[in-house]
Amino acid sequence: MNHSISRRTVLRGSSSIIALPLLDSLASADRGTESQQSPVRSVFLFTQSGVWMEEFTPAKTGTKSQWELSPTLEPLADLKPHVSVLSGLRHANAFKRNPVVNRHSQDNQCHLTAADLGRIPGVAARNSVSIDQVMSRSIGDKTRLPTLNLSINRSSISFSENGSASPSEHRPEIIFDRLFGERSQDSLAKLEALHRRNKSILDSVSEQTSSLNRRLGQSDREKLDEYLFQVREVEQRLAIEREWASKGPVPAPAGATAPKGVPKSRNEHVRTLMDLIVLALQTDQTRIVTFWLGEMGCQYPEIGCPDGYHGYTHGATGSEVARSKMVAVDRQRVDHFAYLLEKMRNVDEGGHDLLYHSMVHYGAGMGSRHGEGEPDGDHLANLLAGHGGGALSPDRHVDFRDYDNIGVPGNYAASGRQPLANLYVRMAQIAGCPVDSFVDSDGPLSDI
């Protein structure tokens, strides 16, 4: 007798429907031949405009009792056994000078792509695909949402195959509806009509593209290719949404309620979006999340930092006041990170918790300074939390810097350090994606 239970099994009471948690006995009915073991989830968090690394970086390296949290990382005290600090990973392409894109733009654009924006001759700046989208190729079809891209500022750290920014969402109410909203027959009919219309347009345009391309210059051909790529992406997203819409809504976990509007407080906004991240992962509606949680203009009056973070970063080198406020914001953002990890740790998945089955990366594309020609200027913040389903060994501080050259201007181009892209490759492999290389990587990162 087959006692398998569908992943979407619910408990029905007289007046409510409650989604089951992800139990070990849940069958692979919704996953084909996929293992019944809990899937590994990947979350990428980004904070813009740098981090004051002198207060962020732990003084000692090692594992467990051999190292201690730095002042900025103290909010992680109760979570230290689940967190690793990865210092000095090389992110070389993000520091290459570009005639039209400054370091502040490279900061977020290159964070998950590791791209040299000026790599194409004759093209001033062109991004490439981000690691979350690479991972989505392999596992995105296993969930309702291939990726969930969130932001506090409508911007994105996720980029498509042709380097275009993937849409992100900042409105909690809309996100909750995407996760748990029930479509009416009318909305399903409209979705079907939109799918057919878009497919018809794409087919018609594709037939004319070959002839048109022969009459266009190089620049116009690139613009047309980019446009067509975006049209195809819309078609793919509609096809996925159409398929999952036919399966019906996923019940929200017990106690989950739909948020109303966008919170006015920055802290409340960030944590509301983090609550939604946990709900999305808990109900297995996505296994890949990106979240831009801190921007350069963020203000935190509740902790005595009423001005934009960007101003503090420029004044931190010469002003103790500016530096103390920069550090205070850094610590506040790490506190948000701790909030997410604690929420994940409280989700039981039958023998282990959600954090055990996840990898949560927290990073920045800039350090204490802009990095161009400054001593150790490319020393970036990188934290990795979770156990990756048992593949990771957290509670360690590893420093990958080349100590023979620390303090030498231009050291950010040194080749003796492992690239940040190696971490992305390792994470992709743990998540079940057949990724052997990514941009400047030379293999999966070791010692984590």
TrEMBL record:
Pfam families: HXXSHH. PROSITE patterns: TAT. This is DUF1552 domain-containing protein. It comes from Stratiformator vulcanicus.
